[in-house]
Amino acid sequence: MKVELEADKxxxxxxxVLAAMDVFDQDDDGxxxxxxxxxxxxxxxxxxxxxxxCPAAAIRLVEQ
Amino acid sequence: xKRIAVVGASAAGLAAAETLRREGYDGTVxxxxxxxxxxxxRPPLSKQVLAAEWEPHRLSLRPPADLAALDLDLRLGVAATxxxxxxxxxQLADGTEVPYDGLIVxxxxxxxxxxxxxxxxxxxxDDALTLRDRLEPGLRLVVVGAGFLGAEAxxxxxxxxxxxxxxxxxxxxxxxAVGTEVGAMLSRAHAERGVELRCGVxxxxxxxxxVRLADxxxxxxxxxxxxxxxxxxxxxxEGSGLPLGDGVVCDEYCEAARxxxxxxxxxxxxxxxxGTSMRIEHRTNAAxxxxxxxxxxxxxDARKPFAPVPYFWSDQYDMKIQAYGxxxxxxxxxxxxxxxxxxxxxxxxxxxxxxxxALAVGMPPKAIRHWRxxxxxxxxxxxxxxxxxxxTGG
Lengths: 64, 394
Fold this sequence. Notes:
The complex is a heterodimer. Chain A is an alpha+beta fold. Chain A contains 2 helices and 4 strands, in the order βαββαβ.
């Protein structure tokens, strides 16, 4: 599975970091940064949570 | 449970439907929405959409393929008109009925309006596109209500060259929500740009020429936007037996009646983290509560109280305002980091003896995160705020 992040949609809420801190971080303006484009399987539940809570619908998990 | 109905197809309803599938539920999920569009996002309506920076297709909450993968019984463009709790059916405006074993109510809110015809409101995509088509340099626009929505719309209209007058009944905009000092700071941002903000004025009606104030004065404008708050869409639930009172009244699990849950703007639930009942009209709460309601519905033996730290953001001019917690009804505000005058600061909010909220403008995420943690932990004000380096007070 691969994570896609549309940074220009990001509203800097940091919800993704709260849900999956091993996969996402924020820059100084709060905009999300993708740390792991292809996260390990044990992180996928956290990533799915991040997809669900992102208030900008800026994250997507796609089949490779 | 073979059939679950989710009524309301915006952020909360979609989050609920998605969570049902993510949790392995493979029965029927009927998702009912009164608007014809596939689920879309609302915060950009008063920002990028009004500014004509984004076209509507960018608002879709999920790409078509992801939506299709949920295998929903999707009923769009049809409103729910009634609920029979005993029969466990929802009636729809097209005359059909949706039977359910479990129900999630997420029909949101609608804008409050003022007497008189012809004013804009800003809730739906159609609302935003209609107003956007009118905005042009030199247009005289009156915005009634200087809350977050009115302020965001005023900022966009100003940027597009409109001559904006912002009318607010309170002495200071948003004072009830963010405190007098922060409210005054937000007011100055309007004044600096030539957006005329008039506080302490009550609009009695919208007229053909603009608006009429309670004292009889008429403020002329080509267009009027009314942004004076919202009303929960509970009309279709009147007489159903579901407890109503400024929203659908739920317990700490978001349950309003057996196997009937509510989520999003319409849900008034008991938040144990703050020890009070609340109804939150924020985008992040819609998703989180939709997820929580779905999980609790599916797992009655492993239910969890919904105890979030509410979060919202607002974009006004060059400011991004972010707030955590429950600021309403606070007893004290203290600037705990940065400088209010420079519009780079964190303000903490005390309710009783605890840190109940924090609001930040122009601060990096790491400056805000530990305040969220303090709120989530119910930290004592005296321990956290007194020990905080505080260059400008607090």
